[in-house]
Design brief:
The chain is of the alpha/beta class. It contains 4 helices and 5 strands; from the N terminus they run βαβαβαβαβ. The radius of gyration is 12 Å and the shape is globular. The termini are far apart.
Length: about 110
């Protein structure tokens, strides 16, 4: 059986954290993308733990910190609205949208 491709937008908030906990109990999924607005440290940690393909930080000023945190990994760092849209356009079988409010609309 092929692994399901899953993206979690807003992975550092309570819904995102709990979603990742559930996903880590199964071996039949592949994490495509994770995103956070400003929590670079937790986003990088999560991305490495689940071997995500992409990690997106919403705050453009934190992009360099994310790049540095992911250096030496195969995880592609992205940032800002463009990064979120790029990650959202990656093929996924299931997407968890845990971004608050109107900020989620363009990605959705």
């Amino acid at each position: 059986m092929a692994k399901r491709k899953i993206s979690v937008f807003g992975s550092t908030g309570s819904i995102g954290k709990n979603t990742l906990k559930v996903l880590q109990t199964t071996s039949d999924c592949e994490i495509v993308a994770l995103s956070a607005y400003e929590n670079v440290e937790l986003l990088a940690q999560q991305a490495q733990e689940v071997n995500a393909q992409y990690a997106v930080i919403g705050d453009l000023e934190k992009y360099e910190a994310l790049k540095q945190a992911l250096s030496g990994t195969s995880i592609k760092p992205l940032a800002g609205d463009e990064g979120l849209l790029e990650a959202a356009n990656m093929p996924a079988d299931w997407t968890m949208m845990a971004i608050m409010g109107a900020a989620a609309l363009p990605v959705t």
